């Protein structure tokens, strides 16, 4: 006989334990066993007033943000709505069945004024990295570095040429992203007035060479125009990973710029050594990281660069390239394919470039000149640290270099996971600070999911955390 459920809801008292309804193998249980936020209240206490209306618990907001990034909920308004109805999310956030959910608007101010000032999001990220190291998931011997373009949250039609003056609104009328840009612009100009470098290659809003286009919505976003792609505004998500199992040991959001990528690599490698006492023996990267300045920086620190050398000396017209000339280290000369010598006056251009030049008489009677140059004489440039580039080039044929190339795919997989699974193919927050927050939270979510997969194979007993 088919039964029928009574439609009435007349029961007055309920015996309900939220801990019993969350499955023992649910991801929130595994992550909760890995996450340590016991420090939050003490560290953030100076950023909260002792008077006035009671504030929202910062640990609750941290947990709610992590729910959003771990489960790819791309809106704080949506995060609040999901936690309202999802019992597993409520359990992870330590909320009772009748507890009210904070309004989505509380996140904006807390993130901008408290979490950023205290660097709380980086503290959460580094806590997860420290747990990965303690669990033996970080080898510390080989790292990989890479950056991925992420679209900015702007309308690309709202832009103006970078070489034209812009009438920005007053500070009180401007958006937070615009105010942040103007502050960085003023700071960079002040550095120039004091004789500094003006942040020409930094991450702020000011650059010596004006950008081609500036977004009126988010001025720190970079205009990216590449062959075969529709131009767009973007930022870079930079990851430094350990090659053992792909744990992200550092992450940073920056402006999309090759020079910035090189500077950020140095920052992240130094920070990982300072925070975790880890210095890799080798670092893998693509050609973007093959600039001689970074190669020398790595070699000076006994880090072997498994990176293709950035070299634009090859000529596309079929004439002799620099590689066709032989450098004599002892005599400090180049010897051309025809046997003539190219000498240098010793003058240094741009602080690192030395020119070598053949004699007019040698070039005028050389039968190979049509394959060499159309100028009167042939010139060759050499970097002061060209010996470093030569040493790195020699590594390309080693088995260790090929292994690093294979392992470097793990950082590319992290970016694929970021965009396809966690749905960060477009930033939601604006301004460089917002981008940094999103990159850190996403990297934290990826590490937590990775830890849960590797450390929590079997469902733990109810109420017991998985061991890290």
Automatic annotation (TrEMBL):
- Positions of the Transposase DDE domain: 335-452
Annotated region described as Disordered, given as residue ranges: 190-213
**Which part of the chain is the Transposase InsH N-terminal domain?**
17-112
Known Pfam families for this protein? Answer: DDE_Tnp_1_6, DUF772
Question: What is the protein name for this chain?
Answer: Transposase
